[in-house]
Every structure is written in structure tokens, then in C-alpha cells.
Amino acid sequence: MKKLGLLNKLVFLINSLAAFALLFSYVLPYVSPETFPVLSVFSLGVPLLIIINIIFLGYWIVKLKKQFLLSLIILLGGISHITSLYKFSNNTRKNHSERDISVLNYNVRMFNHYQWIKSDKIGEQILEFVNQEDPAIFCVQEYYDNEKLNLSNFKYKYVKLKKGKSKSGQAIFTQYPIINKGSLDLENTGNNIIYVDLLIDRDTIRVYNVHLESLRISPEVDQLKNEDSEKLLGRIGSTFKMQQHQTEIFIEHLKTSPYKVIISGDFNNTAYSYIYNKITKEGMVDTFKTTGKGFGKTYDFDLFPIRIDFILISKELEIVDFENYDIKLSDHYPIMSRIRIH
Questions:
Q1: Could you give the CA distance from residue 65 to residue 68 in angstroms, rounded to a whole number?
Q2: Residue 219: CB atoms within 10 Å
């Protein structure tokens, strides 16, 4: 620090705070929201901490100062956090074969039923996109049952709408026969987890469509500034506690599956969270982290790229490739993975 000027000393002080905040974030996946709900909220900010530390790293390298080591060591210590945010290459992608299963996941925001996007064509554009990609399995969150939006190109479907007269819910569309289906019917929420058992050639695969408790926060910075920060933190903390409870119910059901599993859905939480850690510890592999490319952004958040939608698979299945789609037809972005059965 002796050779640093006053400005660079201040920069290094801020760098140190950011580095130790990132280091602290590495323990967040192991901290139960029910125990420390406020701490769990900070998992949402991990992508920003990673980006800030990368900026500091570049700053000190350009300055030819050894202070670059601080952020470098912290970043390398959490390399799995970085690969959850950004995948540097996709060299592990494999050639496609007839044994591949293509799984598309998309929170369609009710096909824009309430005109969040000022267009009457969003529903038709989503269907056009789905038909173009032609997935064998299509998992939909915030599905809206509209007879004008026809997904009849899929041979089989399981649609589970919310209780009452609601026309929204979740759905799984597929080209494979459904031999069993069910719903976990999560209580005190409009969100849910559904599943189907699919007969694929001579194999049976269970597919879960997961939609955990919604955060209900604005993705726009200007609106967030107007929120009471204490109330906002409290609300998010309560949401994460609900997600933990929902995840525990889900894991208990997951353990009963007699088949290999594909989990597709909107977790409403990041890969740095307690709930993601609990689910992946059940022998599940994140398809983006294996064959993704670039930022894995799945949600339209102003501040930084955020990945809250996932396709996870049993370790016994093989990941062929993964695709993020940059199409603005919802507040989420679709993702697709090709998976191979052996």
C-alpha cells in the first residue's frame, strides 16, 4: 500500500470490501433461509459482486499493481460461482443423435394476457418460437389456457391450473406418451410443482416442472429505488423461507422417483442459493454449467445478468448441449437442453 497514491488506496479499500463480500457469499448456499432469512437475500447480489471483482482485477492488472492478487484469489476460490454466471466455452457439446431428448423451459408470463408488453402478437410469437425449435418436451410456467393459442403439435400434455376459476397454472407438453402424472399442490401459493412419467422408447423418465414461490420484485432499478428497503428485504426473506419449505416437499417427492429425472423450471432464485444447493445435492447436474455458453441470463433484470430458470438432470443421463435464447417475449428468457439416454 506504500506505493499507492491516495486515490488508489481508496480504490483498494473498496476492492477489499467487495472481495470479502464475495468471499462471504460462498457460504450462503449452506445457510438456511428459515435460520437467517436476511442473509439469504444477499445470494441475489452474488452476480454483481463477481462482476465488480472482475472489474477491480482488470483495473489493477492495467495499473501493473500486485493488488490484483486479492480479487484474483477470491475469484479463483469460487470458480464454480463464476461458471454459474458465465460459461467460458462450450467445447463439451456433442453431436446430436436420434437418442437425444430436447427439453425447452419457458416462463411465458401468461402469454402476455395482461399486456405487460404492449403488443397483441406476443402469444402467437411465443408459439411460433416453440414450433420453430420443435422440442420433444416443453415445460411452461405461468401458462394461460387460451383456446386461440394452439399447441396441438404436441401429442400429449398435462395442464394443471390453479384452484378456482383461474385459467393459469403450469403445463408440460410432450411428444412422448405420459404413463403417469401428478401435482404436489403446494399450499398457500399460486405456484406449484407438477410431474409426468414419460415412456421414451423402452425407458421411463420422470420430468418435473418446478415453479417455486415468486419474488414479486420489480426488475427495473427506478422502481426498486422507490421501495422501502427494510420492507423489501423482509418480503424477499419471507419468500425464501417459503421456497425452502417448498423445496423440502419437492426433495421428499424426488427421492421416491423410481426413474431417472429431468427437473425443468423457474426456481425464482439463483445458483448461489440454499434451495439450488439442496436440489443439486440430490444427484442433479446443471445443464448450463456443463454445456452452456456466455451469460446464462434467464430473467430480465436491469442491474446485472440473473439466472433463475434451470434444467437439471440425473447424473445417469448425458448432457448434449444447452441453449439460451435472447428473445424478449416475457420477463423470462427460454432455455433448452438436449439430453441423451443410455
A1: 6
A2: 14
272 contacts 84 by C-beta, under 8 angstroms: yes
**Is the CB of residue 219 less than 8 Å from the CB of residue 301?**
yes
- DSSP secondary structure string for all residues of 321-340: EEEE----SSSB--EEEEEE
What gap in Å lies between CA 332 and CA 61, rounded to an integer?
36
Separation CA 158–CA 181 (nearest Å): 7
Q: How far apart are CA 131 and CA 151, in angstroms?
A: 9
Q: Enumerate the β-bridge partners of residue 246.
A: none
Q: Would the pLDDT of 83 be above 90?
A: no
pTM: predicted TM-score of the whole model, two decimal places: 0.92
Q: Distance (Å, rounded) from C-alpha 122 to C-alpha 119?
A: 6
pLDDT of residue 3: 78
| Cα 71 from Cα 16, distance rounded (Å) | 8
Phi, psi of 45 (to 5 degrees): -90, 0
